[in-house]
Give the backbone structure.
Amino acid sequence: MAASVSVPERKSEVKRIFENMEYGPAPEASNVAKAWLQQHDNALGHFIGGKWVKPENRKTYDTCSPATGEVLASTTQGEEEDVNNAVSCAKEAFKSWSQLPPHSRARYLYAIARNVQKHHRLIAVMEALDNGKSIRETRDCDIPLVARHFYHHAGWAQLSDTEMRGWKPIGVVGAIVPWNFPLMLLTWKVCPALAMGNTVVLKPATFTRLSALLFAEICHEAGLPPGVFNVVTGNGAFGSKLAMHPDVDKVAFTGSTPVGQTLRRLTAGTGKKLSLELGGKSPVIVMENADLDSTVEGIVDAIYFNQGQVCSAGSKLIVQENIYDDLIARLKERMSHFRLGHSLDKGIDVGAVVSKQQLATITEFVEEAKVEGAEVFHAPVPVPQTGLFYPPTLITKVQTVSRVVREEIFGPVLVALPFRTAKEAQSIGNNTNYGLAASVWSDHLPTALELAISIKAGSVWVNCHNLFDAAAGFGGYRESGFGRDGGKEGLFEYVRPAWEERPRPECKEIDVKSFGSTFGGSIMPAPGQGQPTANDVQQNGIRLPKVDHTYKVYYGGAQKRPDGCYSRPIYAINKQIAAYVGDSNRKDVRNAVEAAHKAAPGWGKRAAHNRAQIVYYMAENLEMRRSEVANRLTQLTGESLESSMREVDLSIQRLFYWGAYADKFGGSVQETQLYGCTVCIREPVGVIGIACPDQNPLLAFVSLFAPAVIRANCVVIIPSERHPIPALDFYQVFDTSDLPGGVVNILSGGRDHVTKYLVEHQNVEAMWYFGSAEGSKFVEHSSAENVKRTWVNYGIQRDWSDPDQGQGEEFLYHATQCKNIWMPMGVTYAN
Amino acid sequence: MMNPGMELDLGWVQKTTINLPAVERRAATLRTRRTVKKSWQAAWLLRAVTCIDLTTLSGDDTSSNVSRLCYKAKHPIRDDLLKAMGMEDAGIEVGAVCVYSSRVPEAIKYLKQAGGSSIPVASVATGFPAGQTPLETRVEEIRRAIKMGAREIDIVISRTKALQGDWQGVYDEIKVCKEACGADVHMKTILGTGDLGTLTNVYKASLVAMMAGSDFIKTSTGKEGVNATLPVGLVMVRAIRDYYHKTGVKVGFKPAGGIRSAKDSCTWLALMKEELGDEWMKNDLFRIGASSLLTDIERQLYHFVYGRYAAAHQLPLA
């Protein structure tokens, strides 16, 4: 007999369990995490410039474990001075960090990845303790993704000179991240920012500050130079201070749509870059030919992962009618096997939700559905009595009108609706303000692919849900935000064109309500404001008045009289009135946007080859009018004829350039960890409003509409306000080049007036504005309403004739949005 | 309870598809979603012991190793360990002893000698492992094994017919075997999942085997390239669940081949609990076909009792 540790107290226990075969507790130890907190006297400050900084006289916030309510540590409520301190450290660090050779930055990022792995367990435990999510998820999902992100971006740092040629770092990035994946989501900001040579000041969410602070110390130990990555803690207003700090050059945000909108308005017109990864109401679409039991597991991954507190949670289950009852029955049975419990129990499925407020919101949503008469099914499993737990829930007998179907609940609550056909699934799936993610369940390839393409969302998973990887950008369409986290596509959020300086516009105050609202505000659309140009021709020695030429507005492929039936005078360089053009108003915008949307589906389905042919054809037709157009340019702008010729020639070149790109930017295969295929498709943004600048009235017009349309967008374009005629003449080129009606729509008139209605139109997906600083501010501010993508010039001119400035990747970036489609593969499991 | 079977419902058999990557994802997290520790682990391991079909199926089987196996079947865990856990009177013995039909008589003899007559002897039959013999001889094997005292029969399906999509043929043959087994002998049907090519075929074969009256469906012979893997098991237990919902009949499940670690046995038990429920965690509805698994379980229990890891030589050889 070797040893003799007897266990009498366990005797009856083993027998009892042998009979009932229950699960028992499987606790993960928290002693190391707690020792780390004690090392800091359970009172944490900011981490700035490579040091712990605990300013005096700050309020504190006690961070608690949602599973038990236990206080873990006190953290600092920062004040403006702390933001200033952190930003100035980051600004100082930027000087050397941005100048490091790419290989050096790669080494630092690699070291961080390594150190994250060294402390994997500690970070996982800290995250689970502080957030309430299960240790299984932090251990197997959050933290491995953190390490993976750093490895992947160490690679981008290494390759930045070649892969990101023509781009440069922005400066100081202010990152604001939420509490649902505290460390993982901060990584999604920090990795690309550092890889591209920026420095970062991060504000973690109030509820979950610990992992960020721990991580800051780990980065410091990994040798990251002081000031490159700083963590400051504080409340929401403190976050706004960070975003508004003049030396913060970019704000990177993940969080709720309302806060994203606030940040958009706050930073409007400041010249700061902004990326927003916001909320969602992502559909899970189940077709009759899906593997139903596997779909049920997919639904578990979609909505009960992380207590449903996932921006891409598949919270809207839509099921083909003929399998609806079967699937719902299977799902309910599956739900009876859930285990809820303490986040550090290794055998639980669902942990605690993050806060009392969150629990109250979830409860309120579900109660409201009950009142509406919906059927609410809570997983019939024990719910811990203490701690912030909400049982996994399924709501049926609801329809698209219900709030639980339309709004993001951010909890373990799923709504289910039936549909009849794939087409209807697509309509219901897209019947949402959001566009973050979706999953499609079908074992029929053509069905799955068509649905994946037709759902408007940044990530679409086929027969899976909530898969993430550093190599595939994550981010939304519509009110789910813009910009991508991850993949090469995500790098563009952290760079600016090499020729461009950070815009610091001197912007006058604007009244957002009244800006641009006066029709005829810039020039009165009336006669009597100048001398008309001499207007006659000689025929056989007889002087005749010229046949009158009327410039109309152009939409839906036809010239239309402007709705208001007003015309504004356009002056030639000699101050004489060259022509009158239509003065567009709100209703012209409405009609043009409608025409653009009508054209968009067909234009999108055209073969890229065909789009290219049309643009080349435009070049052909423009060249036929080369001298006529050049003469008119000279007459209007006063540039030399030689210079005008150059502008026409450059315009022709640019059409060729963009024609070439029509079939060369469709996307790529992403090298994620998925066994299968992750495809990034660069989809069109949709209908884009464009306001052209006054300089280079032809070249700028061509440079802006062409990249948009070759990437299958439709545009409503406001030509130069001062010199609209070259653009208006162009509609004859469109008409002779087989361009389908509605793809390019031209509205002449007051730039800011028409812009106002375009940017305020909820069905315009993006606005490109090249006008004044004030107009830029207005566009950015007003775009917040439906989280439009914007591209504005802050009143700063660019040189359209310079290929670096007038064409290139920047235009493609703005003309497309990335959708990543995840397609697992496999049938071989054995011989 | 025996499975009376049902008419072959080809519409049902044909309509389902199984998505391998999605099944694999579930199988991968099964291991990490559930774990049992301390007393729970000990109790679960003891339960696993009672579900083992302690098996030897080799060309070199003789009375020496069969007898050793039978004694181990009756005394799977050292008495001191059982006593320390308060389980000395719980009747801990394996679910069955599984041998080739020629070894059935001696298995019965040695079990009796060991005081383990309650332990059924299971015999493989029907041209095990390949099933490539004429149906008549396959059925004759069943009859003889039963005559020699086997109380359970593990048959193999014709992978030939399954791969050719002849589900009617698969059904008919199993039905004939079932008739040969009669009302008192439990029939376990081995699908040879490693040979079936797709998980969709695994699901179809599971359904067909149950429709034809199998009391258990079993993954593999242990002789295919790939044996009892969790994805395969998941598909089979889901078929069992579907069959139960449709007919009210509970069919048992037996993964066999490749299950060697104590942790694996707990994972398979968790699979049963999660996908089918607690009823399927007892040996009337769950068996594990294994030989070396028992040693690892005994080692784990030794550690639970004594807080030290045992050397292999400290545990009686099976």
In short: Residues 10-314 of chain B form a domain with the TIM Barrel fold (CATH 3.20.20.70). Chain B is about 50% helix and 10% strand. Residues 230-247 of chain B form the longest helix (18 residues).
